[in-house]
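> tool_call: predict_assembly(chains=two)
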Amino acid sequence: MTHSIPLGTHVLEHKTSAPSDLYRELVESIKDYAVFLLDAEGCVVTWNAGAQRIKGYTADEIVGRSFEIFYPEEERERGKPKRVLAAAADTGRYEEEGWRVRKDGSRFWANVVITPRRGADGRLRGFAKVTRDLTHSKELDDQRRTLEAITEEALAYFDIDELFGAILGRVRDALHADTIAVLLLDPVENVLVARAAKGIEEEVERGVRIPVGRGFAGRVAAEGRPVILPDVDHADVLNPILREKGIRSLLGVPLRLAGRVTGVLHVGSLHPRDFSQSEARFLQIVADRLALAVEHARLFEAVRLARHEANVAEEALRARDEFLSVAAHELKTPITSAKVAAQLLRRSFRGAALDPLQERSIDTIERQIGKLSRLVTQLLDTVRIQSGGLVLQVEETDLPKLLRDVAEEARALSDRHTIVVNAPEELRARVDALRLEQVVRNLLDNAVKFMPDGGQIDVDLVRSPSTAIITVRDRGLGVPVEHLPRLFDRFYQAHPNRSGMGLGLYVSRQIVDRHGGTIYAETPDDGGTRFVISLPLEAQLVALGAKSA
Amino acid sequence: MTRVLVIDDDASIREITQLALESMGFDVRVAATGLHALESVAREPVDAILLDVRMPLMDGAEFARRYRARTERPAPIIILTAARTAAPGQDVFAGSRYVEKPFDLDDLARVINEVVAQAA
């Protein structure tokens, strides 16, 4: 085994001495290091097994030729080999790491040590050269650094395109590839969309879309594992850009997130190349981190968008409430003038007998102004509830009287409806009387509205130990059960074709809530609707924030 | 005769309120702005002031501050407002009576008589 690479015996000077023979055998057998001698001009004198393994030349091919052939062409042109020998001769030892060229033209990363050999007279006789192939460890080192960089970048960027811009070039260089591209999966159409590329920017510029399962990237996505294509001529590569670019070999890996394929990352080489399994593993690790980073950026974007939308929505709400407030105030001014004018008109007739037409007209004007006024108040209340400005003014109130007064008012509005109040002689409570009137009036308005053919409306008041319970029962259209849960929502209307703004019950519930009471609706078996209000006799004022409504 | 100053930037409200209150036996002055109102009360003191809160240029609160600052015995101010309560921060109206728009004439007359009687 030690003689598999015979040395050219004619170049050895002390071949008969025993120690030298031993030494020569030792050197010849070394496989991990290229160990050889050069003459003073740099021509190869001896060769060993390691030299043949690393550089690819047999002894016959290389002995006698200049060592310059081991250097890349550009370094030869710059005269580097000669400078290296001169440096070794001057300093007694020269060491460096750098690219060297194999017989087949491929490069490897070498550690080189050159030592001068001098005769007894001190004259330079030649050099000893030891070369190690560090390509593998350099690649591992590069890959480790690239992975570290990607991990850092992945955390640093919230923008996918910036992230790709920052790391794709590094990944390509780490693999000594010529092209790199990322395609992200559009899960709706199940196609891969080119998102970023280096060396084949056309992929992105032309908006390449590759269906999963077709072409190279499609195959990688479909198989969900690395695919190595040593020669594109022997594969059905669909994407014409890859051919146009002259890509000969490809390595592709899926972007995976929680077991799902979310895209494809591939690198290409312009000369035929067999990507290794370890390169595939490296690219897969890169792809997995990229998949996480993409998801990271996507979530960040989603959050940012949601925040933005929430702000816009909030701003729109504020603008609407501001508008409603201004509009309501503006409307109140003409209503006020009209109401005073109507009252003034009635006063002017005082003592005189009005004919039915006059009476009916003034009555209609007053009633409609009252209705208009209540609608505007509702609008204003709604805005006030939203901004937390609905404040109760609690005073001792005679509840039976309050109910009878409101009922009386409502009776004046319709002669087709009978309103029956059933209340004890006396029941006093501390409430905001005007607000409570507003609630009951609103329930009676609704009852009248939903009993177009007339009928009886019952208003009951009973006392349980510490609460007053007011019920308003109509025999109207009734509220479909599915509407009950939302009946008190803002702008909600159980009967869309009926008139109204969908604010009355909303405002009513807010008022009752602020008293510390409850209001709900139920549909009795024999038809119609019953509203039930429970009010603490001593209002437990509830401070409701602006957002609670 | 009880003299009342009505301050409101809306001409229609000024006119009809003046007519109504006069028909009920009040002596009525009107002003369209806080500045005019200050001039008016400087010329001729009144027994009560009906004040609109929302006015351009000088709002009701600003008028009330200036009026009280420059008047030895300021007349009671009744706030005419579309809202039932003053906006937060309007301490200048603490203790003032409010009449909500649109108001009932009898209610308004009653409140005027009450505050004038109280001030006397």
